[in-house]
Design a protein that fits this description.
By secondary structure, the chain is an alpha/beta fold. Helices cover about 55% and strands about 10% of the residues. The chain is globular, with a radius of gyration of 24 Å. About 45% of the residues are buried.
Length: about 500
């Protein structure tokens, strides 16, 4: 299934007319800030069968709840649960929990935060945040990590988070998640009333929450929102705790080994295309012609841009990396919506405060709604369309050799995954005296999985350069539409006084 889904992306195959790329039928930029409930009639078709909702930075403005759960765990470990709970009434929103009235605890908190997050955080700062800003670094990121660099880079802090969460009981994680959710209520953009409004608008729709965040946080979000299904990053259970992931256990976890490992074949981070893989496995009809599907995401760093290859409608909500207007020729996508949805705090202040818009928003809302139909898109983006089509054709010419090389690498390491599973099962049932030697064997197998990932990156490198070019051109096309929307807004403002006369 993975290969079939990948083949739906730009460059892997052409349409019946021989072209690889097309423009969507419509792009709507909802530049006027409004409550999410006010957007539902515009972005959800009445005949929608599936509405897929991202969690982090989508349900809450600018807040990654899975990450915040990890920081909350740090506060628990540094201060103790009683002191952490006592701090709650004075806590500000965000990551940090510095208790300056408790200098010793604050020092423990800073030191523990460094040990928990410095390694993964610096990696993500370099390959995630800075690479998204500086073009040369972004190209390096594609060359190093292959065709899906954002997914590969994000897996490092995500795996670190899972290691930390596996250290404490699940009931405690539930309590931490509840406190994170309550503290950030002012940032909430989408709530249970919105789910009811979606069902009223599209009675046949199944609402699905799909997130890369860990199960304790996503399960709580699903309960509070009232969705129909949940797909998230999961780990096996070790009694009342999560079992540790296998990757980088000495780097982020316990060097002497956890009480129990998660079986590698059952663990995967539910990000990017993995979300679609799990959705399609559960509901193959999602890809059936005529099935109306809606994906709603903040699309942070372009993580969910692949949704445009599979859904008929996509909505980027409060996003600084909106969905591009170009898709693969075979994509079912009809409409792209870029919308500004207000948080609970912004909605409360809107009536009486002219500066009600959250200062964290970047870019600021244009305040102007505009719709680009396909004819207008073709006129505005004709040059980009020709360039993207030419690069996609070059990309397809290299797909066959790349896939053959991939199969060669996979064949060489085919037995490693099976051996990993077998070794983990032995470790989980082994007495304490046998575990050190099993961990040494596990180290060797993990070295082989790292070699496999490195070789696959090298195999993809010739096409990764082209993928980077496609990424930049599609990003440029979206920015061009935003600039055109701002031009039309300014024009309407200048013409308004003349119309009034």
């Amino acid at each position: 299934m993975l290969a079939d889904l990948e083949a739906r992306t730009i460059g892997f195959r052409s349409g019946d007319d021989g072209r690889h790329v097309r423009l969507v039928e419509r792009v709507r930029i909802h530049g006027q800030p409004r409550a999410f409930a006010e957007l539902i009639g515009d972005v959800i078709p009445p005949d929608a069968r599936f509405v897929v909702l991202d969690l982090d930075r989508t349900v809450h403005l600018g807040r990654n709840l899975g990450e915040l759960l990890g920081w909350e765990l740090g506060a628990h470990l540094a201060y103790g649960e009683d002191r952490r709970r006592a701090m709650e009434p004075t806590r500000a929103r965000g990551r940090l929990a510095l208790d300056l009235r408790n200098p010793r605890g604050a020092l423990r908190y800073v030191g523990l935060g460094y040990r928990m997050w410095a390694d993964a955080g610096l990696f993500y700062l370099w390959w995630g945040k800075l690479a998204a800003v500086f073009e040369r670094m972004n190209r390096m990121r594609f060359r190093r990590f292959g065709l899906e660099p954002v997914r590969a880079v994000q897996s490092v802090p995500q795996t670190a988070l899972l290691h930390h969460l596996s250290r404490v009981p699940l009931p405690l994680l539930r309590q931490l998640a509840e406190d994170v959710w309550a503290r950030h209520a002012p940032d909430q953009v989408i709530d249970a009333a919105d789910m009811a409004a979606i069902r009223a608008r599209a009675p046949r729709a199944r609402i699905i929450l799909a997130s890369a965040s860990p199960e304790p946080m996503v399960a709580l979000a699903a309960e509070r929102l009232g969705v129909d299904e949940v797909y998230c990053t999961t780990l096996d259970r070790a009694g009342e705790q999560l079992a540790s992931p296998v990757p980088w256990f000495r780097r982020f976890g316990r060097r002497k080994g956890p009480a129990r490992f998660t079986l590698p074949s059952r663990h995967g981070i539910n990000s990017s295309r993995a979300k679609v893989e799990r959705l399609v496995a559960a509901h193959p009809e999602i890809l059936a012609p005529g099935t109306v599907t809606v994906g709603i995401s903040d699309t942070g760093y372009g993580e969910d841009h692949c949704w445009a290859d599979f859904f008929t409608h996509v909505v980027d909500l409060n996003s600084d990396t909106p969905f591009p207007p170009f898709v693969a020729a075979g994509s079912p996508l009809r409409e792209v919506h870029s919308a500004v949805a207000l948080s609970a705090d912004e909605r409360a202040r809107r009536a009486g405060d002219p500066a009600y818009v959250d200062p964290r928003r970047k870019p600021l809302p244009t305040g102007y709604d505009v719709t680009f139909e396909r004819d207008e898109l073709q006129r505005l983006l004709a040059e980009e369309a020709d360039t993207i089509e030419a690069i996609a054709a070059r990309f397809q010419a290299g797909v066959g050799p790349m896939e053959a090389a991939r199969r060669g690498v996979e064949g060489r390491y085919e037995a490693v995954q099976q051996r990993l599973d077998e070794l983990v099962q032995r470790y989980n049932h082994a007495p304490e005296t046998e575990r050190p030697s099993l961990l040494t064997q596990l180290d060797r197998l993990l070295e082989q999985t790292a070699e496999r990932a490195l070789l696959l990156g090298q195999v993809e490198r010739p096409l990764a350069d082209l993928a980077h070019s496609l990424h930049r051109l599609r990003e440029h096309a979206q920015q061009k539409l935003r600039f055109e929307a701002e031009r039309l807004r300014d024009l309407s403002v200048r013409e308004a006084p003349h119309a009034a006369r």
